[in-house]
C-alpha cells in the first residue's frame, strides 16, 4: 500500500512540475517582443504595447528615428523581456524599465545617443540621465547626426524653426531676430529651416519675441 501511495505521489509531482513548466513557458512566451514600433516603443505577444520609461527617442520619420528603431530591434526583437516598475500612461501604453537577459535596454538606447531623458521618476533615473550626458558630450547618435549649429544648408531657406523644450511651443527666428545666432536646430524633435514666414506659420510656428 505504501509503495502504491509513493508511486501516486511521484506521478502527481511529475504532473505538477509539467504543468508548472507549461504555464511558466506560456507566460514567458507572452513577454516575447513581436514588433518594434520605433526607438522607444514595442509590442509584446500578449498584445501589450510598452514604452521605455525615462527615454524619449526620435519619431521614426525624424532625424535619428530609423537608427533608434534599428538599435532597439537588435536588442529585443523576437526576444523575451522583463518589465520593471511598470505603470500605464495616458495613451494606454505601459511604461517600464526593460531588461533582456539582464541587459538594461533603456540605458543601451541612451548609451548610443539615440534618446533623451523624459525625466519621469524611476529608480534608474539618475543612471539614465548620466548616460545621456555622456553620449551627448561624446556626440554620439543624434548629437552628431541631428544638431545643426553652422550656416543653413540652403541659403534661400534661413528661417530657423525652434521648439521650446519646456512648453513645446513652436517659434521661428528670422536672421534679424535677437537670438538667431544662438538657436541650434535639433532635427530629431522636428526643428528645421523654412524658406518663408508663411511656410513656418503653416507648420505651426509663430514669430519669436525679439524679432523685428
Summary?
Keywords: Endonuclease, Hydrolase, Nuclease. The chain is an alpha+beta fold and 212 residues long. The protein is 33% helix and 24% strand.
Verbal overview:
The protein is an alpha+beta fold and 212 residues long. The protein folds into two domains: 32-144, Beta Barrel (OB fold (Dihydrolipoamide Acetyltransferase, E2P)), CATH 2.40.50; 148-207, no CATH class. Helix content is 33%, strand content 24%. The chain is built from six helices and 14 strands. The protein has helices spanning 2-30, 65-76, 105-111, 125-137, 142-145, 197-202, and strands at 33-36, 41-44, 49-52, 55-56, 82-88, 94-100, 103-104, 116-117, 147-148, 159-163, 170-173, 185-186, 192-194, 206-207. Strands 1, 2, 3, 5, 6 and 7 form a six-stranded mixed sheet that branches. The chain is elongated. It starts with a helix and ends in a 5-residue tail after the last strand. Mean pLDDT is 89; it is low at 21-25. It comes from Candidatus Roizmanbacteria bacterium CG_4_10_14_3_um_filter_33_21. Residues 27-145 form the TNase-like domain. GO terms for molecular function: endonuclease activity; hydrolase activity. Keywords: Endonuclease, Hydrolase, Nuclease.
